[in-house]
């Protein structure tokens, strides 16, 4: 089994959209416009390929985005610098095989050289103990709760401190920036950017 984690490409978007919208009730649906916003604006948008097949994806944004999600905005009002995981989706055929942890390791590697905090939220309605346990064992702590708009579900707002960031900041970011290594590079986004969009989170 050959696994590759790579930045999303434009030709992946139809497959990403289909995967998102068949993921079940724990993932809010996307439309093409909202997915295009992520393609244009997300700081982290990577897909997993297994033997050439799309097996999953993860989307994350840094602070300073115009993203209108109430959960993203909660973190923006409480923390000056963070990476926010908007959604992770794994295809049914590849669930319970550790791919979620692979993605979380990858997004942590992305985040810890840029920010002191990795954030996300999980639904408490309906409660999913597997998801809660996954995040708890990965080092996330609850920092708040809120109900999503339009009488939406109650969510637990989670944050994970990234202790490596202090070293990276003091050694590199305060002294000219990160080394010019491919694994440290920013995602190459399209030159144009989309409009702000509303609630789309998982």
UniProtKB/TrEMBL annotation:
<dbReference type="GO" id="GO:0016747">
    <property type="term" value="F:acyltransferase activity, transferring groups other than amino-acyl groups"/>
</dbReference>
<dbReference type="InterPro" id="IPR000182">
    <property type="entry name" value="GNAT_dom"/>
</dbReference>
<dbReference type="InterPro" id="IPR016181">
    <property type="entry name" value="Acyl_CoA_acyltransferase"/>
</dbReference>
<dbReference type="Pfam" id="PF00583">
    <property type="entry name" value="Acetyltransf_1"/>
</dbReference>
<protein>
    <submittedName>
        <fullName>Acetyltransferase, GNAT family</fullName>
    </submittedName>
</protein>
<feature type="domain" description="N-acetyltransferase">
    <location>
        <begin position="3"/>
        <end position="163"/>
    </location>
</feature>
<keyword id="KW-0808">Transferase</keyword>
